[in-house]
Amino acid sequence: MRFLLIEDNERLASAIAERLRLDGHAVDHATTLSAARECLDAAAFDLILLDIMLPDGDGRQFLAGQRRARNAIPVIVITARSAVSDRVSLLDLGADDYITKPFEFSELEARCRAVLRRRGGSAANQTSFAGVTLDATRGSLNTGRRIETLRNRELRLLEVLFNAPGQVFSKAQLMDRLFSFSEDVSENAIEVYIARLRKRLGGTDARIETVRGLGYRLVGPR
After folding, report:
1. What CATH number labels 2-119?
2. What is the mean pLDDT of residues 57-72?
3. φ and ψ at 50, to 5 degrees?
4. Of 42, 171, 181, 183, which sees the most CB atoms within 10 A?
């Protein structure tokens, strides 16, 4: 998944980004609201982590503006304000969740997973398709015959496919979901990950099909 982190505290932002990247997520970092808007214009994101007090404005106004523009990207607000009225105000503005500073990274990771699950219409960390179960928390794939332990990027790529079976994703779209602006990789990386995942899905009814000239999609039994 690709996250946009909007936080002007470089030390905190670096720690958050490093932790999320270890989970296999792509993270782009903006220190201002202006830079954040440029990122949103240039790429598609699965989740926004938004600080409130930023050098060029108030994160709450940014959030309200995104919702008025019908931008439905989930937003988790990072705030130092713990009063109930402040939290209620953030949720009423359109935040999907919030986390209060200081926080444990494990809690932030859990809140990210929960928000992404809700976005996908699931209440659990497990997603099943064609007899195969993907467990995002454990990073595993249960084929019914064996349990495969996935590498982080393999997991994130399968999440994209499992959340939209039958939908065709181009290499460019998958690159956009898996890698940040700072990562210098080619579309060949997608071919490598697809090849690995096909091996992991071997012997199951779930297949990653190549749609010539368009991209890849997850399909079930023929």
Report:
1. 3.40.50.2300
2. 94
3. -120, 120
4. 171
CB atoms under 10 Å from CB of 57, counted, come to: 14
Query: How many angstroms separate the Cα of 177 from the Cα of each of 45, 54, 66, 90, 172?
Result: 7, 26, 20, 27, 9
Which residues are registered as beta bridge partners of 48?
4, 75
Taking a C-beta distance cutoff of 8 angstroms, is the pair 197, 218 a contact? no
d(CA 126, CA 209): 22
pLDDT over 70 (residue 73):
yes
Domain ranges of the chain: 2-119, 126-219
In the chain, the amino acid numbered 162 is: F
Helix, strand counts (H, E) of the chain: 8, 13
Architecture per CATH, 126-219? Orthogonal Bundle (1.10)
Q: What's residue 35's pLDDT? A: 97
> How many other C-beta atoms are found inside a 10 Å radius of the C-beta of residue 118?
13
CA 137 to chain centre: 13
